[in-house]
Amino acid sequence: MLDFSQGFSPATHLLLTIAAPLVGGLAAWLLGHRGLQAVRQSAAVTSLITLGLAATLVLRFLGSEPTAAGGFFASGELGWFVNGPLDIRFSVGLDGLSIWLFGLSALLTVTAVFVSWEAVQEKAVGFYCLLLLLEAAMLGVFAARDIILFYVFFEFTLVPLFFLIGIWGHDDRRRAAVKFFIYTFAGSVLAFLGLLAIVLWHASHTGVLSFDIATLTAGLASHPLPMTPEWGYLQLWVFLALFVGFAIKVPIVPVHTWLPLAHVEAPTGGSVDLAGVLLKIGIYGFLRFSLPMLPEAAAVAAPWLVALGAIGILYGALVALVQKDLKRMVAYSSVSHMGYCVMGLFALEPVAVEGANLQLINHGLASAGLFATVGMIYERYHTRKIAELGGIASQTPWLAAFFMLFTFSAIGLPGLNGFVGEFMVLAGTFQRAWSGAPAEWATTYLMLALLAVAGVVLGAWYMLQAVERVLFGQPRGATAGEHGAHARDLAWYEVAALAPLGVFIVWIGVFPSPFLRASAVAVTASTQASSEAFASRVSASRISATAERDAPASPSAPSADITLHLGPSHPLSTSNRLAP
After folding, report:
1. Maximal C-alpha separation, the chain
2. What whole-number distance in Å separates Cα of residue 270 and Cα of residue 438?
3. What is the pLDDT of residue 76?
4. How far is CA 218 from CA 93, 526, 531, 568, in A?
């Protein structure tokens, strides 16, 4: 139960953090009649209070005993639908899988509010109310410990962003909003059907329709979904349903087509939250549900998903390389970089999985910073065409410096956060290829790892090429005209939006241990069942390959020796065995 009797307990702290954006959104709506300044100040104060609550909650998490063993922190629940056969609860808590994504959600909302300070002038009340509602949904989805509660928050992330894109987006905003909603809603329905199948299977063994995630995870360990022909490979079908829902969210190629359009048409604040947080819900779903609950199916699908990750890395990088729109280039770079998370996760090698989990945070910081700076460039020069930009560093040096920092983070420069995550993913994938891959996949794994390395090279190519064209050289196009002559450098609210991201980018790059240590036990526990299932398949594959290699040739049919006397000089003068 949520305990309010002992002061500011961790559970109360968590609940207040989730509720703060909702209260702040209501306050912004009530202050709407006072004008734009009052509304955006209210939104800024709310986002900062929520960040403060989230930051102190993270610090309490790091110092708590349950987290050292991978348990939940700040756990609390209230009965929701608990009468009769249903057991649905408002159950929340944080563990190593969710703590950093929870904090990232609060941090990037501050960035989203401040980058919208001057960009959003019309219908500001609705914009900031929706932005704060989106923050509450993002915080809730990472704190939910009940499947129904998770799904409610999961769906609530779609609604505010749909309106943010459709109302405050650019020229093709309505088509982008509709495509975003249809793709993600269809995927979430499939994911919910998969989760419901898990609940019903568990209920068939216990007699209780429990939706508690921890209970279901433990229950499926003792009575797993069948993975046999007699049951029609039920576990694999449930895994595929969850996969489609979460893959669309990541997104994984080929279900990625909604993302570039949504990014390009979204307002800057919407792009920050979309790239920084919402794409991470897909990987989080794999870690929270697919890998621990459906290990046999995950082991079967793992090689194919590693391949999809590598394809996404290469495809996203190649398409980004030929883009002429700066924001679209960054959008395709997100497709490429999320491929590393997919690849590392399904390599099912401890170092790769931990690297993929860290890379969620790294990509969130770098991509949010890139979209924020691209939005600032657009505000000043009213174009995102790379050919119409140049020499920005001479006009706005601080903006150029931040853009370069986020670029170097994205391409994995040593000393910054992107290097740590990508190095761990690649190291773990090569380790899997050399020592832990099924016999029939060993060469393929090695080729996929090499493709991922090629993706790093391509990423540096298109990002540094954009830096050279946009920031340096002589001003041209928009930067040489009236907009360039009056371009200003960063204002205080823009520095407030970007500086915290830069701090964490350097911090994780120089000293990643606290971020890895906080998640290590929970990540290992989440992937243990799938890793063991995969190891069993590897062992069986190698035994089979060895048996086939060492098996003697099959005996031939009985035959008769017939000697043909053809003379010593005849070319067929040999002893021949002719089958009867």
Report:
1. 116
2. 42
3. 86
4. 17, 11, 16, 80
